[in-house]
Amino acid sequence: MVKSLNSFSKFVIFILTMADALISNDTRFLGVLALVALACFVRAKLKFTKWLGILIVLHLVILFCLNPDYGVTLYHYNISWIADFTLQEALYLLTIFLKDVIILTFLQIFLLTSQPAEISASLNTIGLPYRLSYKIGRLFGLRKQFKINYTKLHVAAAAQNQKFSKFAAVRFLLKAKHEETLASRHFGKKQKRTWYQMRPFSERDKRAMLLAVFSVIISIILIVVNGGRLWNPFR
Questions:
Q1: For position 187, what pLDDT does the model report?
Q2: Which residue, 14, 47, 51, is CA-closest to 33?
Q3: Phi-psi category of 153—alpha, beta or left, where left has phi over 0 and alpha has psi -120 to 50?
Q4: Which helix (H) or strand (E) holds 90?
Q5: What is the torsion angle, in degrees rounded to the nearest 10, for the CA atoms of residue 39, residue 45, residue 47 and residue 53?
Q6: Which DSSP state fits 128?
Q7: Alpha-carbon distance 235 to 226, whole Å?
Q8: Which of 26, 51, 60, 64 is most solvent-facing, going by the fewest CB within 10 Å?
C-alpha cells in the first residue's frame, strides 16, 4: 500500500506529519501518530536504520544532560520518580522521542520507497529548481551505484590478481566520468520539467493526503482544547 503511493503524495505526507510533530506537544496525539508511522513502516517491509536509533538516543541524552529539570519547568510540577529523575522529565523526553520517531519514520518511508528520479520529481513539483532537484535525487542513488561499480571493479581487479580496497574504489569512481542516466525529459519552461517516473495520482494518494491534512487539523484543535501546545496531565 505505502510503496504504491505517488512519490509526491509521500513527500506531502512527510511534510504534514513533520508539521504535526513540530506543532503539537500533546503526548497522546504524538503517540497515536507514532504508532501509525510505525505501522506504515512495517507494512512497507522496511528495516529501521540502526544509526537513526542511535541518533534518537543521543538526542535524548544530550537534552537531559543540558537541563535535567526542564520537565519540571515545563509542567510546573515536581514529582520524583527514580532518585532525582522526575516524572515530568520522563514525560518530556517521551514527547521528544515520539517526535523523532514520527519525523524519521515518515522520512525513511519517503526515501526508501521512492526512486531517485521520483524524489527529484517531487522536489521539482513543489517549486524547487529543476537542476537542484535533479542533483538531490541523484545523491540518494549514489550508494546503489557505488555498490554496482565496486562489484565490477573488484571482479576486474581479482581477474588481474590485484588488490582492490573500498578506498581505492572511491578514489577511482570520483575521478572517473560516468554517463548520466536519462531520468527526465530535458524540456519545459523555466525551472519546470516533465518527468518519466512521476506516477499519476490515484484515489489512494488522495485519501492518504487527506488523512495527513486531517491530522494537522487535529493538532490545531488540540492546541485550542489544551489552551496551548502543551498537554499537561499534572494539572
A1: 43
A2: 14
A3: alpha
A4: helix 87-112
A5: -10
A6: -
A7: 11
A8: 51
Same domain? 176 vs 106: no
Q: How confident is the model at residue 169 (pLDDT cuts 50, 70, 90)?
A: low
The pLDDT of residue 120 is 74
Crossing angle for the helix pair 27-43 and 7-23, to the nearest 10 degrees: 160
What's CA 175's distance to the chain center, in Å? 31
Question: How many helical (H) and strand (E) elements, i.e. helices and strands, does the chain have?
Answer: 10, 2
Q: Are residues 38 and 140 in the same domain?
A: no
pLDDT tens figures, 7-48? 778 888 999 999 999 999 999 999 999 999 999 898 888 887
Same domain, 160 and 136: yes
Return the bridge partners of 85, or none: 82
What's the rounded Cα separation, in Å, for the pair 214 and 209?
9
Instruction: Dig out the grid coordinates for 190 from the structure.
Output: 523555466
Distances (CA, A) of 180 to 100, 120, 183: 35, 14, 8
From residue 215, alpha-carbon distances to 5, 91, 118, 169, 225 in Å are: 18, 22, 25, 46, 15
Query: Domain span at residue 176?
Result: 117-196
Whether 9 contacts 205, CB under 8 Å: yes
Do residues 123 and 66 both lie within one domain?
Answer: no
Q: How far apart are CA 90 and CA 81, in angstroms?
A: 9
Grid cell in block for residue 148: 554496482
